[in-house]
Amino acid sequence: MSATLEALATGSQVGAALPLLTAVVQRPAWSAKYKKVVAVVAALVAGVATVAADGGWDQFQHGKLTMATILGVLTVSQASYDLVWKPSKLAPVIEALTARKTPQQPE
Question: Where are the domains of the chain?
Fold first, then answer.
């Protein structure tokens, strides 16, 4: 398998699970725009971490592979959320379960 395909495969695997991890920090009361910003920033950070974990810090010398991995994480995380996790209601349930209760909110 070529290095680019390996980078895309690794990025896709991370991106598929990322919406569930992002749902832990997101809150149901946040606006859709704010949730999207958090999801994109999380995907970019996860993409950089994936590049570093997959090939070490030397991997960043290869711009094409770095961008393929980061864009793979970003694209697959957004697509898997919209196509799988949101319709299955799993990500919204995780958001609700991990939301902190304020003293004014009923339990």
Answer: 3-98
